[in-house]
Amino acid sequence: MVLAARSYYSLRFGVLSIEEMVTLAARKGHKVLGLADINNTSGVFDFIKSCTQNMIKPLVGMEFQEHDQFLYTILVKNHQGFHEMNRLYSDAQIQAHELPKQAPFCEHYFVIYDVHNAPSNLNSNEYVGIRSYELSKMYLFIQKFDSKKLLILHQPFYNSSKQFETHIHLRAVHFNTLLTHLKDNQTGKRMEKIPDAASFEKYFSEYPFLLENTKELANLCHFDFDFMQSKNLQVFGESHKDDIIMLKNYTYAGLNYRYGKNNTQAVMRIEKELKTIIELGFTSYFLITHDIIRYAQTQQIPHVGRGSGANSIVAYCLGITDVDPLELDLYFERFINPKRSTPPDFDIDFSWKDREHITQYIFTKYGQRAALLGTSNTFKDRSIIRELAKVYGLPKEEIDLLIKQPLNPGNNYAIAHKINALADEIRDFPNIRSIHAGGILISNLPITYFSALDMPPKGFPTVQWDMYVAEDIHLEKLDILSQRGLGHIYEAVEMVAQNQEIKIDIHDTARFKKDPRINQLLAIGETIGAFYIESPAMRGLLKKLRCNNYITLVAASSIIRPGVAKSGMMKEYIKRYHHPDKFEYLHTIIKEQLSETFGIMVYQEDVLKICHHYAGLELADADVLRRLMTGKSRQKGEFERIKDSFFKNSAAKGYPEHVSMELWRQIESFAGYSFSKAHSASYAVESYQSLFLKAYYPLEFIVAVINNFGGFYSRFVYFNEAKRYGAKLEAPDINFSNYTTRLIGSKVYIGFIHMENLEQAFCKQMIDERERNGYFDSFEHFLQRINAGKEQLTLLIRIGAFRFTGESKSALLWKMNFYKQKQEKSRPTQNTKELFNLPYKKFTLPQFKQDKLSNAFDEIEILGFPVELSFFDLLENKYTGEILAQDMLNNTGKTVVMAGILIHIKGVRMSNGKKMNFGSFIDTDGNYFDTTHFAVSLQKYPFSGFGIYALKGKIIKEFEQAILDVTIMKKMNLIADKRFS
Fold it and tell me: How does 647-668 read in b/e, with b if 16+ C-beta sit within 10 Å?
């Protein structure tokens, strides 16, 4: 038997997956197998499942190490012991103290020490483990310890010489040392491999009591686990009965708000959903989520509920989502249905500034039942090569060559070949435990009944396994996510209230959807800054569709995804959208099910519809297929089984093979990147909220985008957008600028945060002083009130923050140096502030020249872009092209030359494998235009970084979008920077 095997979840130590380890043990005749990974329980539940499948009794435990030194191994007697073991490890992590050298007594687990660190007085649950390579000293151990306290401690972690070599390299990576510097005590032993069961027992036959003690301990361990029962908190209030009453009351109160009192259709849908929710035991899950939303509302924290949860009218009435499932004909079964093999989860977005606040509320309310969901970062191609190359001591140049040019002849040497071979061995091994993007678990028992906990820098306890394990053990997660789009919206709403004393109901989306001004912005792709719809590809799609309504935007939010484009369905959708009478449906069933989307699979739900209604698959199988294709399931062999069923059923129904083949092609290429309809609808609601603000309060909105650090583009684009909408852009100013960007009237004062190398603490000091004691009335006044180093003052002078004084930068720099010299002579310490504002000595300075060009170069260096001037003002030849962006549609088919500032490049591979680019530019008026660069042009005229380009090409038109198909491109030169000449 093997008591304490270590899988590859013993990070950068073990080399066997759980499945491989258990299969090997079964093949070698073992009936009992223990798993005790180093400081890790990630593999426990996979281990139990695999042992059950292989008719092996599983023993569950963990090897405790501190500073890479063995302390003891714990094996649990039962589930309570698992909890106690996990709590022992977790407490040390959460409280940031070292593990105890001797484990606390617990009747529900056994502790096994090695002969070198065993306590002199062993508790009744404690043993001393004898390793196979220590039998030669057995006579010493018998003298030192009671023979009843001795048993076999075997800790295999590999099975072949090749795997041991991989282990050695992993240890070198772990210790960040050269392979030749690795010490013996930093690696496992060669005898620690998975042995043949019969040979293993024979090896210890000279000391039968070791075998007897080991078997007796194993017989006392029983870790039974129910994988089917939900592990989530089952009761939110006082009782399950109270929860049902509470859920109904909240839902019907929300019904009146959302639909009024007499909506029969809504009532029928609510009754149907409540019945399913209650029967399947999700009552508390809805109430927990509702409670989080209510708390957020009391704190004025914005949220968006999205994902498949938006298919639920109950969720809509509870305020969890803002998507009306009746309006969009969203079916509840996509979220919860009795045949669904996996539990649902809510995805809730909060502002990036507020998510931690919400997370803290959840942990405060649910205490030891709450934890963040974990994940494993695995070894990937580049990281593997880099780490392995370092243990061989390769110089950076050779490492870069291996990574960036793997086929280069310079990589044809023995060590390079060795590194590549080893990389293949450890690719996808777990490397570092990390945190899921937003998953939070709330369990029915303290969370340590299910996992040991890590305490990452994020500051909240985190389970050691991932979402797939959570799914396997039926512990549903809440996704508490963050995004900057909400920050844009709610900061803009606050700014409008402050600046214009107008209170906006940003949730009145029904009104927004009917607003012609908003829909016009959609139709022309005027969506820079608006959540999810501002990328060049999305703006282009909106123009091609002439999208002017919510339903079309929902579809656009899904067909923009790579899978739809790859299958060719995006282009086909646009054609059918404009010419609904000029195409034929593949099959009558397709027309019945997908007429809303013109026979095109646009949403994840469409995959379910086609698989179920066309091929006759059970909805459960159709949903498994969807999850397989979206990477949310790991059921091995299921994909091929469902694919076979799809074609067999289609053939049995007499459908033409070519129709079935084409449908499957669309499903396969599309489903992996698709959205659920509810998800797209949630995004579209937020897009409408953004566009409402942009349509009616554009400057507040754009400043809010800037202050939440933008979206798709660099900050230069958003400052350009402010100018397009009538703002006068102002460089940072000591009297009017804040740390973030500020709007005063139509003036946008760039925030100090955007200044390169300006310190935040200094900015705070400056702003606090101004708010306490008023504006600065001169440069000298500023120097007397603020303790500022030369470097910080120089930055403020160069950016023009003292321009209100009317003095040149050179004069101010001269004054600064004079004042600082005087200050250093007269003050005992540099940080002492003057007690009184004494008169400042007047003196005559020479006349210094200052011009706009020098200012512009200062601004570019400090902010990244010019403020008063444009980049076009800095061109050597002042060329701005033959036509501007606004003229493109009127010049379709013509070859023209345009000039633009590059703001985005997207590279793609064509079907022939060649690379092409899509470019986005700003013209001299500040307007945007898009370009295509096919392989022939791109190879001859590649991009060469940010700047202004002259672009020659033919203007082509797809529906309402004009694009410049570039044949020749040249980056234009700026005038010389004369500040240092």
Answer: eebbeeeebeeeebeebbebbb
**Spatial separation of the C-alpha atoms in residues 292 and 320, rounded to whole Å:** 9
Cα Rg of the chain, angstroms: 34
What DSSP line would sit under 283-319, residue for residue?
HHHHHHHHHHHHHHHHTT--EEEEGGGGG-HHHHHTT
Measured CA to CA, the distance from residue 348 to residue 305 in angstroms comes to 4
Between 381 and 952, the higher pLDDT residue: 952
Q: Please spell the DSSP secondary structure of 472-530, one letter per residue.
A: HTT-PEEEEEEEHHHHHHHHHHHHHHHHH-----TT-HHHHHT-HHHHHHHHTT--TTS
In this predicted structure, the answer to whether residue 830 has a pLDDT above a threshold of 60 is no
- Whether the CB-CB separation of 444 and 83 falls below 8 Å is answered with no
How far apart (Å, rounded) are the C-alpha atoms in residues 589 and 649? 14
| 790: amino acid identity, one letter | K
Find the mean pLDDT for residues 617-629.
73
Amino acid at 874: L
pTM, whole model, 2 decimals? 0.82
Q: What is the pLDDT of residues 432-483, one digit of tens each?
A: 999 998 899 999 999 999 999 999 886 899 999 999 899 899 998 999 988 8
To the nearest 10°, the Cα dihedral for 551, 555, 558, 563?
170
Q: Is the pLDDT of residue 568 over 80?
A: no
Please provide residue 232's backbone torsions phi and psi, each rounded to the nearest 5 degrees.
-75, 160
Whole-number Å distance between alpha carbons of 479 and 439: 4
Task: Kindly give, in sequence order, each residue whose CB lies less than 8 Å from that of residue 520, ignoring residues fewer than 6 positions away.
Answer: 526, 548
pLDDT at 74 (0 to 100): 98
Read off the pLDDT of residues 64-107 as tens digits, 9 standing for 90 and up.
Answer: 999 999 999 999 999 999 999 999 999 999 999 999 999 999 99
Residues 284 and 235 sit within 8 Å (Cβ to Cβ): yes
Instruction: Classify residue 616 by burial, with Cβ atoms within 10 Å: 0-12, 13-18, 19+.
Output: middle
Residue 516 has pLDDT above 90, yes or no: yes
Please state, in angstroms and rounded to a whole number, the distance separating the CA atoms of residues 976 and 556: 46
Angle CA 64–66–67, to nearest 5: 140
126: phi then psi, degrees, rounded to nearest 5: -110, 145
Residues with Cβ within 8 Å of residue 60, at least 6 apart in sequence: 34, 35, 44, 47, 48, 75, 76, 82, 221, 223
Report the SS3 class of residue 895.
Answer: strand
Percent of the chain clearing pLDDT 70 (strictly above)? 93
- CA separation, residue 696 to residues 502, 518, 519, 748 (Å): 12, 9, 13, 17
DSSP 3-state assignment of 812? helix
The DSSP code for 463 is E
